[in-house]
Write a structure and sequence with these properties.
Mean pLDDT: 88
Number of strands: 25
Structural class: mainly beta
Number of helices: 5
Largest sheet: 15 strands, mixed
Length: 394
C-alpha cells in the first residue's frame, strides 16, 4: 500500500489521507497548492508518496517553486519548513489573469500545472447555527451556509471551517503544587499560588474532510442551508462559547470533479474496493516524462468567509453542560510510599499530569496530604491556549 498525504489544498487545511494501490511501490511527487483572491503569502507543499509502514510523507526539499501569471509576473516561493514553500511576497489572484505552477526539484526534474484562471467570486450570505436531530437520531448543533450567485456562474462550491471554542477548567484552583524534595526518602510538595492564567483557554480545530456541493441541477445558483458541520450535543467543545469560521471556495467543473473523486477514494468503502483505480490524475505533470506518475491539483479560487458565535445556553438553556473531555476523578496519592520506596505524588507532579484540588482533610483516610485531579480538569492549557484570539467576541 502506498499513501499520499493530500490536504484539501489550502494553507490552513488539516490532512485528508488519500490511499492508492500499486503493484510495486513507486515514489511519486505530491503537489498541494491553491491560490485565492486573498492578499497574503500563499503556500505550496511538495512531498512524496509513502508506504503504509512509513510514519508519513517524505518532504521534497530544496526545490525551486514559482507561480507565473499571464502578465509576466513571477512569484517565487521559499522553503520555510521541509517540503513547505511560502511566497516571498503577498499577492492576490486577479480575475481575468491566468496562473501556472512551476516546480524544479533538487535533482533537476521539472513539473508544471495546466494554466488556470480564477473562478467567479460569490459572497456567503449567511452562516447559521440550529439545534437539530440528525438522520441518525442524534441531537446536536448544525452549522449551515447560504449563498447565492444571481449570475449563475459559480455553481460549484467547496467549504472549509475553523472552529474555536472556550474551555473552562471545571476543577480549577488558584493554587498549585510545587516540588520541594523529589528523591526518596525526601519526598515533599507544597501549595503555592498559581502564577499564570490556567482556568480559561481557547482551542481551534480545522476541518479534515472534503465538503462540497453543486447547484448545477438546480433552477438557480443558490446554496440553501447546506450543512457544513454537525456537532453532537454531548461534545464538550459546545460547553461554553463556540465560534466557527466558514470559508467558501468557488470551483471550476474540473476542480469539483477532482475533489469528488478524491473524496470517494478517501472513503473506507472505496479504499479497499477491487474496482478502485490505481491513480488519481490531477493537473500537475512532469515536463520530462509523460509516464511519470504525479499527484496533485493546482487551483486558483475566489473565496469568501464568514464567522459566527454562539453560547451553549443559547440552545440548551435549561440543560446540563456536556460531559467534560476527561473524568475529573479525585485522588490523594502518598508523598512517600515505603516499601517499595517511591514518591507517587512527586512523580505525577513531575510528569505534569495532575492538578491540586485542596488539602486532604480526611476525605481520603489512607491518602497523602493533598487531593488532586487529572491536569485537564484544573489546568486548561492542557487542552488549549490561555491567550484569547484576536477575533474573539463575548
Amino acid at each position: 500500500m502506498v499513501i499520499a498525504s493530500f490536504p484539501m489544498m489550502c494553507i490552513c487545511s488539516c490532512i485528508e489521507t488519500f490511499e492508492t494501490k500499486f503493484e510495486d511501490f513507486e515514489s511519486a511527487l505530491v503537489f498541494e497548492a491553491i491560490i485565492t483572491d486573498e492578499l497574503k503569502q500563499h503556500e505550496v507543499k511538495v512531498t512524496r508518496t509513502y508506504e503504509f509502514e512509513d510514519e508519513g510523507p517524505e518532504a521534497e526539499s530544496n526545490a525551486d517553486v514559482r507561480i507565473v501569471d499571464g502578465t509576466g509576473n513571477t512569484f517565487v516561493f521559499q522553503e520555510t519548513l521541509p517540503g513547505t514553500y511560502v511566497s516571498n511576497q503577498s499577492f492576490a489572484a486577479q480575475s481575468g489573469t491566468t496562473y501556472q505552477l512551476s516546480v524544479t526539484t533538487n535533482d533537476g526534474r521539472s513539473y508544471s500545472s495546466t494554466v488556470m484562471e480564477m473562478t467567479e467570486s460569490t459572497t456567503i450570505d449567511e452562516v447559521s447555527a440550529q439545534r437539530i436531530t440528525n438522520d441518525e437520531g442524534v441531537d446536536g448543533m448544525a452549522i449551515y451556509v447560504d449563498s447565492f450567485d444571481p449570475s449563475g456562474n459559480s455553481v460549484n462550491y467547496r467549504y472549509e471551517y475553523e472552529e474555536t471554542y472556550k474551555i473552562i477548567a471545571p476543577r480549577h484552583n488558584k493554587n498549585t503544587l510545587e516540588i520541594l524534595f523529589s528523591v526518596y526518602p525526601e519526598c515533599e510538595a507544597r501549595i503555592v499560588p498559581r502564577e499564570v492564567e490556567e482556568r480559561v483557554c481557547y482551542a481551534t480545530n480545522l476541518s479534515n474532510r472534503i465538503i462540497q456541493t453543486t447547484t448545477s441541477e438546480l433552477d438557480e445558483d443558490r446554496v440553501d442551508k447546506f450543512l457544513v458541520r454537525f456537532i453532537p450535543s454531548d461534545d464538550f467543545i459546545l460547553s461554553h462559547r463556540y465560534s466557527i469560521l466558514v470559508r467558501q471556495y468557488v470551483q471550476s467543473n474540473i476542480a469539483y470533479s477532482f475533489y469528488e473523486t478524491l473524496n470517494e477514494l478517501s472513503g473506507n468503502e472505496s479504499l479497499f474496493s477491487e474496482t478502485q483505480p490505481g491513480f488519481l490524475i490531477g493537473n500537475v505533470s512532469s515536463d520530462n516524462s509523460r509516464d511519470e506518475k504525479v499527484l496533485g491539483y493546482f487551483d486558483v479560487c475566489a473565496t469568501n468567509e464568514k464567522r459566527i458565535f454562539f453560547d451553549y445556553k443559547d440552545f440548551y438553556p435549561d440543560e446540563p453542560l456536556p460531559p467534560y473531555i476527561v473524568p475529573c476523578v479525585e485522588s490523594s496519592p502518598l508523598e512517600i510510599n515505603h516499601p517499595p520506596g517511591t514518591c507517587p505524588l512527586i512523580r505525577q507532579i513531575e510528569l505534569d499530569i495532575v492538578e491540586l484540588i485542596g488539602e486532604n482533610e480526611g476525605q481520603f483516610p489512607l491518602g497523602g496530604p493533598f487531593i488532586i485531579v487529572p491536569r485537564e480538569c484544573g489546568d486548561c492549557t492542557a487542552l488549549g491556549s490561555n491567550i484569547q484570539p484576536d477575533f474573539w467576541l463575548e
